[in-house]
Write a structure and sequence with these properties.
The protein has 8 helices and 7 strands. The protein has helices spanning about 25-35, 50-60, 70-85, 110-135, 160-180, 195-205, 205-215, 225-235; strands spanning about 15-20, 40-45, 60-65, 90, 140-145, 185-190, 245-250. Strand 2 (about 40-45), helix 2 (about 50-60) and strand 3 (about 60-65) form a beta-alpha-beta unit. The structure holds nicotinamide-adenine-dinucleotide (NAD).
């Protein structure tokens, strides 16, 4: 499925956006969407080949970045500022969902810590690094990728992943409140299951796994990365100027459903 953005929306003309995890999936679709709306895009990602390709495609900048490394994160936002003179938008989106993170009974401390580092500590580091730039500008929009599992429980547990996303949600809400009067908005984006490499790999091996989940989605399908990117562009733009500290669910209705249509 492709989502037509009509080529009309141009809400981010001249804005500078940093996207972590911008080399794939939701991040890549967002890189394209933000650029299509006029933003200069800076990609921070572990994957040098895909990261550079994505940056080249939109005339942006790729900065090799491990989001768990404080110095690398600081360097990412500094390079964005030094290159384009501002940092208006931070989409803190890099995340992992490894197979050794499952039920609490089977998940070891090392697997737990790895997911916490990449999914939660990274968002702490990115927000800590970007907020001072936004304070100086008196303006900024931070969008942190959480997940619908931050607000719903799953019997098919990925315990560290869910806990990390709960942390992202709570942190985003608190930052949104703390910096609300300084022109900085902070929202947690909570996607439902989305067709990205992260998800397709997991389900390709086991169609029953996909079916077990699809039954809970009122719309009867997974989301597309472009549909999440459209929500990010909205939260990044002044169209969402009265929205902060929000739990922004883009989930095909999952979190509102009890019985779904047949
Ligand atoms: N796909 C889904 O169904 C879904 C649902 C809800 C939330 N999310 C969240 O959305 C975000 C993006 O997921 P996706 O599905 O697009 O995943 P993806 O695997 O397609 O892309 C993730 C990107 O993050 C990068 N990355 C991983 N670790 C990194 C690190 N330490 N430093 C820098 N970059 C790193 C990868 O190289 C990759 O480019 C994640 O936070 C994920 O938890 C995904």
């Amino acid at each position: 499925m492709t989502v037509d953005i009509g080529g009309k929306a141009h809400r981010l003309e001249g804005r500078v956006a940093v996207v972590t995890g911008g080399a794939s999936g939701i991040g890549l679709a967002t890189v394209r969407r933000l650029a299509a709306e006029g933003a200069h895009v800076v990609i921070g990602d572990l994957d040098p080949a895909a990261g550079k390709d994505a940056a080249d495609e939109v005339g942006g900048l790729y900065v090799p970045t491990d989001v768990t490394d404080p110095a690398a994160v600081e360097n990412l936002f500094k390079l964005a500022f030094d290159t384009y003179g501002a940092v208006d938008i931070a989409f803190n989106n890099a995340g992992i969902s490894p197979p050794d993170d499952g039920s609490i009974l089977d998940t070891g401390l090392e697997a737990w810590r790895k997911v916490q580092e990449v999914n939660l500590t990274s968002v702490y580091l990115c927000c800590k690094a970007v907020i001072p730039y936004m304070q100086r500008q008196g303006r900024g929009s931070i969008i942190n990728t959480a997940s619908f599992v931050a607000v719903m429980g799953a019997a098919t547990s990925q315990i560290s992943y869910s806990a990390s996303k709960g942390g992202v949600l709570a942190m985003s809400r608190e930052l949104g409140v703390e910096f609300a009067r300084q022109g900085i908005r902070v929202n947690a984006l909570c996607p439902g299951p989305v067709n990205t490499p992260l998800l397709t790999e997991l389900f390709a091996k086991d169609p029953e796994r996909a079916e077990r989940r699809l039954v809970h989605v009122p719309m009867g399908r997974f989301g597309e990365p472009e549909e999440i990117a459209a929500a990010v562009a909205f939260l990044a733009s002044d169209d969402s100027s009265f929205i902060t500290a929000n739990t922004f669910l883009v989930d095909g209705g999952i979190s509102g459903a009890y019985v779904t249509p047949i």
